[in-house]
Write a structure and sequence with these properties.
The protein is an alpha/beta fold and 144 residues long. Helices cover 35% and strands 17% of the residues. Bound molecules: flavin mononucleotide. The site of flavin mononucleotide has 16 residues, from helix 1.
């Protein structure tokens, strides 16, 4: 089993990475392999809402017109058996990099049926790491 961990924190030594590592090391003890992607350090634009009507190639071709690391990350996601989305709670929600990635993934994964293989039905684990006592975590994942 291969696990792709997508992190919305940029800190490989931070709390989000630490929680993610605990999960991955448990999985590794049962033979799983894994890779981590730190979204904030990737070249990743936000959705451009390309056309005046708000649509774009995502609607007609099931792909994104922006030439950055989105396709590379999404190819890794398609090839993984399980995906972990690990996110530090920012302003009671997802981090900016996680928002950017999920908004674009949503456009290609939800609009066109032919773009869904490898995305739809994928087992997903969500991790939210809040500051203080951790009470912000449920708020963060509620709208996802
Ligand atoms: C910009 C920013 C906004 C934050 N907003 C919240 C928040 O609304 N609620 C909360 O509980 N923690 C908040 N925090 C704290 C982080 O969620 C917490 O420190 C988290 O552990 C950081 O993860 P990291 O160590 O992987 O960077 C915020 C931190 C930052 C940098």
């Amino acid at each position: 089993m291969h696990i792709l961990a997508i992190l919305g924190s940029r800190n490989p030594e931070g709390q989000t990475a630490c929680a993610c590592d605990a999960l991955l090391s448990g999985a590794a003890s049962k033979g799983a392999t894994s890779e981590k992607v730190f979204l904030a350090t990737c070249q990743l634009e936000r959705c451009r809402q390309c056309e005046d009507n708000g649509w774009g190639l995502c609607r007609t071709e099931g792909r994104c017109i922006i030439d950055d690391e989105f396709d590379l990350i999404t190819e890794k996601l398609r090839n993984a058996d399980v995906v972990v989305f690990a996110n530090p709670v920012y302003f009671s929600g997802l981090s900016e990099s996680m928002h950017a990635y999920l908004h674009r993934l949503g456009r290609i994964g939800w609009i066109r049926e032919d773009a869904r293989p490898g995305i739809e039905g994928k087992p997903v684990i969500g991790i939210a790491v809040a500051g203080g006592g951790g009470a912000g975590a449920p708020e963060c994942v509620h709208p996802v």
